[in-house]
Amino acid sequence: MAIPAFGLGTFRLKDDVVISSVITALELGYRAIDTAQIYDNEAAVGQAIAESGVPRHELYITTKIWIENLSKDKLIPSLKESLQKLRTDYVDLTLIHWPSPNDEVSVEEFMQALLEAKKTRADA
User: Fold this and answer.
1) Residues linked to residue 33 through DSSP beta bridges, in sequence order
2) pLDDT (0 to 100) of residue 23
3) Catalytic one of 30, 39, 60, 90
């Protein structure tokens, strides 16, 4: 799937506002939806996607891993939680929201955890 030229960002949108915004965007033809763990709206975004009736394969979903979840022992569980909230078995793009402040988690550690997450997905 090609990355859609336009997408909906959901920063600061919560509850009914994010649900109606995502549903309206999908009705208007948007197919890219951007969210993040720190936005605390992944579950509402997932609900909106489910209610929209748009097939998952038509969507390009992005989420971002928050700094508290960058360590090797937290990254994969946090991604699994994001997938559960979004009501999907995959996201099309996973971003590191911000690098770890003060290098508390090394780039090598979270990149290795991302690689492991990718392998886990490939094996599923």
Assistant:
1) 8, 61
2) 99
3) 39
